[in-house]
Structure formats: C-alpha cells, structure tokens
C-alpha cells in the first residue's frame, strides 16, 4: 500500500520509492517504523523547503526469496519506483539486485551483510547501508592475535548469510598463523539434538576458541545447549560477530545468562543526545502502533533504516524533479514480466547523488564509498551480569585494540596487536584468567608421552621396570628438562610417560618409529633424546632445541712417544730454520768485517778467523760469546742481532713445549675421506639417524657397525677396524661429550661437525602446545635450573680436556719473524756500507789513476791487502806512548816515513810509483820486471825501535 507524508503540499513532487520487508515480524516492523520516522523528521524539522517528497510503497517479502523478488518486480514494473529500500536479508537481496541493475533502480539495504553482494562494477545500483561482515574480520583476528590463541573453530549457519564471511575469516586467521582445524556448520532448521551432537564433537577437540556467526534465532539456542553440556565453563573462549552482538541489548535475560563471558564484535554507534531522544520517541510511537509487542527494543538495524532513508531523501532532491519517468521496452513477444520492465531515466543521476551524499546520522558519519557504507570503528563488548559491557575498540585505520576510541589527532602508537589494551574481561565460568585456547579433549585425561627404550647412554633417558607393581620409572637428563619446562607453563598439564617397548621390555622400534606414533595419534608427544631433522618434521612438530647441535666424529688418540726423536725440529718450519742459519753466517761475516782490522780476537790464521766469526755468531743464541766487539758499528749490529735471537729462542722454547705436550693427544685420523679411502669400519649408535648421513658421505653399508652403549663402542675401538671393530664413531655432540667424559684419556672429538638442530620435544602437527613449550624451553635454558640439571648428569665429566685443545700445534714459520730478520739485515748491511765508505775514503789515493802504467786490478789488490791488514792507527794497536806497531817484517828495501795517520797513503804511493817517483807501466818491454818489483815492494812500513818489538805477518 502507498503511504504519503503528512507534510506534503501542492508545490512538491511526490517520488515513488519501494520498501520490501517482512512486515509481519518484529524486525520488519522496527525497520518500517524507523523509515516512517525518518521521513517525518526529515521533511518536518530541517528540510521542509525540499521540492521532492518520498512516497513509500510497501511490500511484504513474506520471509521468502521468491516473494521478495516478486514484490520488487511489481514495484519496478507497475509502480515505477525510483528506488527500493530492502529487502531484509542477503538471500532476498541477491536476486533483487539483478532487477535493480536491469531497470537502473537503486537498491538500498540496511540489513544485508553478505560480503559477496557488494561490487561496484557488477552491482552499480546496489547501496549497502550497513557494514558488510568482512569488515569485522580484522577486529576478530586482532583480538585472537592479542591473546596468542593458535587455533580457532568457526561456528556458522548453513546459508548464504553464514557462508559469506567464512573465506575472509579463514584467510585472516591464516595470515596471523592461527589454524582452523575444523568448521562447524549448523543448519538453520537444526533440532536441539543435532545442535547438542555438534557441540559434543567440538568438545572432543583440543581447540577451545569458537567464533560464532549467526542470527539470534539460532545463536540463542546454541548457547543454551552449550551451557547445558558444560561448554560455558572456564577455559572456553566464545567470540560472536555482529550478527548476534548487534542484538545483545534486545535478547531475553535467559539468553544473556547462557552467554556469560562471551566476547562480541559490533559496529560502534556513538551515544549522542540526538540518539537518546530518538530512542524515547521511537519506543513511544512503536508501542502505540504495535500494542501486541511488549517491551520492544530498538536495535542498530532500525537506526540504519532511519539513516538510509534520510540518505535517499537527500539524493532524490539532488537528482532533480523533472525526470522520474521510465523508458518502456517495446517487445512483440513478451513471455515473462522480467522482459517487460522498463528502465528508469533518473537512475544514473540518483546513483551519482547517493554516492556524493554525506551527513551526520543517528549511527555517526554517514557516506557511501563504492556503494558501501564506511565503518569508523568496532566495539568489543563482554557479556556480563544482566547485559553487556564495553571493553575496547578497534578501527580499520589503526588496526589495534584500544580501551578508548581516539581520533587521529589524539591517537598514539603505543598500542600493539600483540598486547591487548582492553578493559577487564570476565571469561566463561566467571574466570578472570585468560584461557589458553586449548585443553585436553576429555576431562581428567593425561597426555600420553612416549619415551625411547634405551640400553645405553642412560644419562639421557633411563627406563626402569618394577616387576612388583608392573610400572615403569623414567629418569634422565631429557626427562628432567621436560619436567622443568612443563612447570614453567602458565597452566597445568597432566601427563604420564609411556616407554616405547615390547612386552618383553625391549625397544619396539627406532626413533623414527617412535616419532611416527605421534602422527598415528598413539602418543600425544615424545620426550627423549630425539633429534630435530628434516624428514621427521614432515609428520610432527618439534619444539625449539634444548641441547647443542651437530654430529661429530670420535677417533682414538695417537700414542707418539716412540716417534719423538726429531720433535725438536718441529717448532720451526724448514724455511725458518734455513733463514736463521743463513743469518747466523751472515752476521758472523759482518762482525768479522767490522772488527778484524782493529780487534785481535778476530785475527790470526784464516781458519781461526772463520771459526771465531761463526762461533761468535752462533754463541749469541745462548748469549755466551766471549769475544769483545770494539767498533761502534759492530756493537750496533750485535745489539740488533741479540734482540732477534732473544725473540727467536723464546718462541722456539714455547713451541717446543707445546709440541712435547700436545703431540701425545694427536688424533689418529682427522679426515673422513681418508676413512672412506682406506675402507675402515665406522660405528654409530643403534636407532640413530646417523647412518643416513654416513651413506650420503660415501661409506659402504657393510662398513657401518652399530653399538648400543659407550662400553660397547669402546670395545669396538679396542678391536680395531681390521678385526671387526671400528676406526671411528659418528654420533651427535651430546652423546660424544658424554662418551669422551667417560674415556677422555683414550679418545677425542674431531672435525668435521655435520649440522643438526639438536634435541627437541615432539608434538603433533599444529599442536597448540608447541609455541608455549618452546617459549618455556627458552625460559629454562636461560635460568639456573638448566645448569643444575646439566651438573647433575654431566659434571662428573667436566675434568676432561676440551676437545678444542686436542688439535696439534702448528710450527712457527718465517711469516711470523720476517720483520725481525728484515730489521737485522738492514742494520747489518747499513753498517757494512758505512764501514766501506769510510775505508775507501781513507784510502782513496790507492784508486787514483795518477800513473797510467798501473792497472785497476793492481790497485784493487793493493786495497785488498790493506783491508786484511791491521789498522795501526786504531787505538787498540797503540802502546802507552801512542806509537803504532808494524804489520810486516822489514823488506829488503826499507824506506822511512813519518809515523802519522796517513802512513798507509805514503806506503801505497811508494808501491805504485817506485823509488824515484817514476810511474810504472803494466806492459813495458824495456823493463819487464818492473811490475813484479812493485808488487813485491807494495807495502813499506816504518821500523821503530822498541823495547819489546812485535812483528806480525799478514796471514
């Protein structure tokens, strides 16, 4: 029927609009009353000057999709409405949208929330006057992430409303690493027994976080049954979407009582004075129009119906007043009403006007973006007592939880999705403790923890059977660590250890078999010396490791006591030995050059001088030289050389000490490839994954020997590879350290170390315990408790040397001392250069070419004889009177010259020029014996009478 606004006048244009609602139920009646009040308020109070007036044409959808479509078709074809408000739900709206697109009639819905309905390209004539269900997914996932829940189960109604949000919800949960192990789908026509059956199925799962997405008619029944069977107790988490949370204020008290502790997410409606006045007015008017409905409560859908009507009235005015006609389609063969509907000429203008409409409504700022109402914030509420209590907010812009809603200008960045910034929450069961989000499925059930059955290395895991009680006691390092870890969890977990053994007490399989039992759900977890490796992680989840990682090799220590005859040569490399020897010779020569002309200790027969020079040089190693060094240049060279020798001898002593000590701890073999090349047998622990690594390295399967205990491994080493034993053993570092601790004087651990992740606890895939236990492992390993556990089992082996010290020392090489030799060499060469420059300068007359008859070689020979003779001008060859001593016996022809420092020059002059001062020639036929005579008389020294003359001959 048509309803006309009371305030219309003759100057206004009436515009037909349709309303499709379920007018016979409470929801439809509330919406319809709000639409009427919106038009009355809009045209009476502030917009009485508008030239258009909306004329409502109401149709009943009769809670049926087909009836809703028929009503919309009638409004478009027969009434030629310019827009339609409604229908009520997403199923009805889905078909009506297509009619609107075909006829260019805008469809405005205030209650259809299915996300799939909105598409600005496919549905340009659909305007959703309510936030779609996917917009609240961010608030829900942020809430779950803030409390650290790792699993969640959605419970939703099996229709288009319920199914529309699930893809968005599951994707968002996976994005925060929260698993969805199960989806609970409940039919809208489900009986109470069917609901109870589904709830019991949920109770058998570990997950205790449930997200409910359905309308109050079904949701109230779900929570009533959940409370009845004990699912509203402490430990459970219930989160409901706005489909149910929007009606919290309208639900009966009995339903609220069954929902105590539930969290709800719903669009936030600011509590303004305008809204408060409207609620009073609406309640009075609705009660007068519907006296049969007692205590009706206005919900958010009524407020949205009010605002969408205002938006339509404003848009109609904007679109103009002279184009409200339909363009009739002319067809000759019309078989259906759908083919005969016309097209609204004002539709495109009305769509444009709606898209630009903005105002402050009852629900807050109201505007459409791509046909979708923009949501400013969601409120998090907690059902408690007789109603609900707001505990926080979430906004699409900030994407964080906050106690108070803040604007952009007053917001801060202190909030984090990982830290819930909410008010106090009362959880189901009147609990104030945050539920952990999972529990053991059945009440009082203990976790069945599988442990390996071992015959060796019992320090890690040891199982002892009591024949009287037929029970087993499990102890060991791994067990103590697990117990300590579980005690640090923020909640109690009961468990019992079950040995993985056959009835006769022997092991029921390998470690891989034991771990696979968790995948088969025969064990809830595995605790023991279980190594984290890739192929095992395909079927189970491991916690963080609690031991050091790696697989290493153990070999016997080589006894080299009978092979140390030449150990004194090993501290230095051959190049350092050779360089040192060369420098000893070189320094001895340099000292002789600098000292032999002025120092009697370096004179005498040629063999004596050579021996003295070398003896002096080598005696500096122990600083026992007895020869004096007189010249300053010689002293400079010796000082530098003694510094070099001091460092060299000290380094040699330290290196020799290291070799004599470490040599006995040298491993017999350090290269895995050498083991393969020799075809040696190697050992591994029974049940270990190490054989796979050894086969990949190239070991023949026939060369792999298994052992069960440290004692058996030691026996295999004693036998040796040639007698069926082993030459090396491969195992994980914790086992190797325990073995070396027991036999530290016989074996050592060598490189290489193959990387593994260490020992970890085993849980089923995606178990919610894994992150909690991993965090607890970090807490234990960083505390003193871990040191206490390690000391209890491994401190007795702490006196053994560290395996890192079992590597032989390296010899000292030339690269460590070349700087010292460089300094010594430069000092010696510099001293030689200075000496030679001074010597040549003092005897420069010998090299002058005054007599062309004298050859250069003759001059050099003369200079050489001077070089090997005494320097009589030196203070060491002067007596008390300061008179020099002769160097030669008198020659047959003696010439007397004054005894002065230049006497060598005079002698040389005589030798070169003869008695009469006439130059001699090298080739003179008239006087062939002249050069020989000059050579024989080359040096003439002064004969000075002395009380005790000493005449020395040049050797």
Automatic annotation (TrEMBL):
<feature type="disulfide bond">
    <location>
        <begin position="744"/>
        <end position="800"/>
    </location>
</feature>
<feature type="transmembrane region" description="Helical">
    <location>
        <begin position="574"/>
        <end position="594"/>
    </location>
</feature>
<feature type="transmembrane region" description="Helical">
    <location>
        <begin position="633"/>
        <end position="652"/>
    </location>
</feature>
<keyword id="KW-0813">Transport</keyword>
<keyword id="KW-0675">Receptor</keyword>
<keyword id="KW-0407">Ion channel</keyword>
<keyword id="KW-1071">Ligand-gated ion channel</keyword>
<feature type="transmembrane region" description="Helical">
    <location>
        <begin position="817"/>
        <end position="841"/>
    </location>
</feature>
<dbReference type="InterPro" id="IPR001320">
    <property type="entry name" value="Iontro_rcpt_C"/>
</dbReference>
<dbReference type="GO" id="GO:0016020">
    <property type="term" value="C:membrane"/>
</dbReference>
<dbReference type="Pfam" id="PF01094">
    <property type="entry name" value="ANF_receptor"/>
</dbReference>
<keyword id="KW-0406">Ion transport</keyword>
<dbReference type="InterPro" id="IPR017103">
    <property type="entry name" value="Iontropic_Glu_rcpt_pln"/>
</dbReference>
<feature type="domain" description="Ionotropic glutamate receptor C-terminal">
    <location>
        <begin position="446"/>
        <end position="796"/>
    </location>
</feature>
<comment type="function">
    <text>Glutamate-gated receptor that probably acts as non-selective cation channel.</text>
</comment>
<keyword id="KW-0732">Signal</keyword>
<dbReference type="InterPro" id="IPR028082">
    <property type="entry name" value="Peripla_BP_I"/>
</dbReference>
<dbReference type="Pfam" id="PF10613">
    <property type="entry name" value="Lig_chan-Glu_bd"/>
</dbReference>
<keyword id="KW-0812">Transmembrane</keyword>
<dbReference type="InterPro" id="IPR015683">
    <property type="entry name" value="Ionotropic_Glu_rcpt"/>
</dbReference>
<keyword id="KW-0472">Membrane</keyword>
<dbReference type="Pfam" id="PF00060">
    <property type="entry name" value="Lig_chan"/>
</dbReference>
<comment type="subunit">
    <text>May form heteromers.</text>
</comment>
<keyword id="KW-0325">Glycoprotein</keyword>
<dbReference type="InterPro" id="IPR001828">
    <property type="entry name" value="ANF_lig-bd_rcpt"/>
</dbReference>
<keyword id="KW-1133">Transmembrane helix</keyword>
<dbReference type="InterPro" id="IPR044440">
    <property type="entry name" value="GABAb_receptor_plant_PBP1"/>
</dbReference>
<comment type="function">
    <text>Glutamate-gated receptor that probably acts as a non-selective cation channel. May be involved in light-signal transduction and calcium homeostasis via the regulation of calcium influx into cells.</text>
</comment>
<keyword id="KW-1015">Disulfide bond</keyword>
<protein>
    <recommendedName>
        <fullName>Glutamate receptor</fullName>
    </recommendedName>
</protein>
<dbReference type="GO" id="GO:0015276">
    <property type="term" value="F:ligand-gated monoatomic ion channel activity"/>
</dbReference>
<comment type="similarity">
    <text>Belongs to the glutamate-gated ion channel (TC 1.A.10.1) family.</text>
</comment>
<dbReference type="InterPro" id="IPR019594">
    <property type="entry name" value="Glu/Gly-bd"/>
</dbReference>
């Amino acid at each position: 029927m048509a309803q006309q606004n009371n305030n219309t006048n003759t100057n206004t244009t009436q515009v037909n609009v349709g309303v499709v609602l379920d007018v016979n139920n409470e929801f439809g009646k509330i919406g319809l009353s709000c639409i009427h009040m919106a038009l009355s308020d809009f045209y009476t109070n502030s917009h009485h000057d508008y030239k258009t007036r909306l004329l409502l044409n109401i149709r009943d959808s009769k809670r049926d999709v087909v009836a809703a479509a028929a009503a919309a078709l009638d409004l478009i074809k027969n009434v030629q409405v310019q827009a339609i408000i409604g229908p009520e739900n997403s199923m009805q709206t889905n078909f009506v949208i297509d009619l609107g697109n075909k006829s260019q009639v805008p469809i405005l819905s205030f209650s259809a929330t299915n996300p799939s309905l909105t598409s600005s390209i496919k549905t340009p004539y659909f305007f959703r006057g309510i936030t779609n269900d996917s917009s609240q997914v961010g608030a829900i996932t942020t809430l779950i992430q803030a409390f650290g829940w790792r699993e969640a189960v959605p419970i939703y109604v099996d229709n288009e409303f319920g199914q529309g949000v699930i893809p968005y919800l599951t994707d968002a949960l996976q994005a925060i690493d929260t698993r969805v192990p199960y989806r609970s789908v409940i039919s809208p026509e489900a009986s109470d027994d069917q609901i109870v059956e589904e709830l019991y199925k949920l109770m058998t799962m570990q997950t205790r976080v449930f997200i409910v997405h359905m309308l109050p008619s079904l949701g109230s029944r779900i929570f009533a049954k959940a409370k009845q069977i004990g699912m509203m107790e402490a430990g459970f988490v219930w989160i409901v979407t706005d489909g149910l949370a929007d009606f919290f204020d309208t639900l009966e008290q009995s339903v609220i009582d069954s929902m105590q502790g539930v969290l709800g997410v719903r669009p936030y409606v600011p509590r303004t004075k305008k809204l408060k006045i409207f609620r009073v007015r609406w309640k009075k008017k609705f009660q007068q129009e519907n006296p049969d409905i007692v205590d009706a409560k206005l919900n958010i859908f009524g407020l949205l119906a009010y605002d969408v009507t205002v938006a339509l009235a404003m848009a109609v005015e904007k679109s103009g007043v002279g184009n409200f006609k339909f363009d009739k389609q002319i067809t000759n063969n019309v078989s259906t009403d759908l083919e005969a509907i016309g097209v609204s000429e004002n539709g495109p203008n009305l769509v444009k006007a709606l898209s630009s409409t903005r105002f402050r409504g009852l629900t807050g700022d109201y505007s459409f973006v791509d046909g979708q109402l923009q949501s400013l914030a969601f409120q998090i509420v907690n059902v408690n007592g007789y109603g609900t209590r707001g505990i926080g907010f979430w906004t699409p812009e900030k994407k964080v939880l906050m106690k108070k809603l803040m604007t952009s200008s007053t917001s801060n960045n202190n909030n984090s999705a990982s830290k819930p910034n909410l008010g106090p929450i009362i959880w189901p069961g009147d609990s104030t403790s945050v539920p952990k989000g999972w529990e053991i499925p059945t009440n009082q059930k203990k976790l069945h923890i599988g442990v390996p059955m071992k015959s060796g290395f019992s320090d890690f895991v040891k199982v002892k059977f009591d024949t009287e009680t037929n029970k087993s006691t499990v102890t060991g390092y791994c067990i103590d660590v697990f117990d300590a870890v579980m005690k640090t969890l923020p909640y109690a977990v009961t468990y019992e250890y079950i040995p993985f053994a056959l009835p006769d007490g022997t092991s029921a399989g390998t470690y891989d078999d034991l771990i696979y039992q968790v995948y088969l759900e025969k064990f809830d977890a595995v605790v023991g010396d279980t190594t984290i490796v890739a192929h095992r992680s395909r079927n189970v989840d491991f916690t963080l490791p609690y031991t050091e990682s790696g697989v290493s090799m153990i070999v016997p220590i080589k006894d080299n006591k009978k092979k140390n005859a030449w150990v004194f040569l090993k501290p230095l490399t051959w190049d350092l030995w050779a360089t040192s020897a060369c420098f000893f010779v070189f320094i001895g020569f340099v000292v002789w050059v600098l000292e032999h002309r002025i120092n009697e200790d370096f004179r005498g027969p040629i063999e004596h001088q050579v021996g003295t020079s070398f003896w002096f040089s080598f005696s500096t190693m122990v600083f026992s030289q007895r020869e004096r060094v007189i010249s300053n240049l010689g002293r400079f060279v010796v000082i530098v050389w003694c510094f070099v020798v001091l460092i060299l001898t000290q380094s040699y002593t330290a290196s020799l000490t290291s070799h004599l000590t470490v040599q006995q701890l040298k491993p017999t073999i350090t290269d895995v490839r050498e083991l393969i090349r020799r075809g040696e047998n190697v050992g591994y622990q029974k049940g270990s994954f190490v054989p796979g690594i050894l086969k990949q390295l190239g070991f023949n399967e026939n060369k792999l020997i298994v052992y069960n205990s440290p004692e058996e491994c030691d026996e295999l080493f004693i036998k040796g590879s040639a007698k069926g034993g082993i030459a090396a053993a491969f195992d994980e570092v914790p086992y190797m350290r325990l073995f070396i601790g027991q036999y530290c004087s016989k074996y050592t651990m060598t490189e290489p170390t193959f990387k593994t992740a260490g020992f970890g606890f085993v849980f089923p895939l995606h178990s919610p315990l894994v992150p909690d236990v991993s965090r607890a492992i970090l807490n234990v390993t960083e505390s003193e408790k871990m040191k206490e556990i390690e000391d209890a089992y491994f401190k007795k082996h702490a006196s053994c040397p560290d395996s890192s010290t079992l590597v032989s020392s390296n010899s000292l090489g030339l690269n460590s001392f070349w700087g010292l030799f460089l300094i010594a060499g430069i000092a010696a060469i510099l001293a030689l250069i200075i000496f030679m420059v001074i010597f040549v300068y003092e005897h420069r007359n010998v090299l002058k070419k005054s007599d062309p008859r004298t050859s250069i070689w003759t001059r050099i020979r003369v200079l050489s004889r001077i070089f090997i003779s005494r320097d009589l001008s030196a203070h060491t060859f002067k007596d008390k009177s300061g008179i020099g001593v002769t160097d030669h016996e008198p020659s047959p022809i003696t010439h007397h010259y004054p005894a002065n420092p230049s006497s060598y020059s005079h002698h040389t002059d005589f030798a070169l020029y003869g008695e009469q001062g006439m130059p001699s020639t090298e080739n003179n036929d008239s006087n062939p014996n002249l050069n020989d005579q000059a050579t024989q008389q080359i040096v003439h020294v002064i004969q000075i009478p002395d009380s005790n003359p000493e005449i020395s001959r040049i050797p």
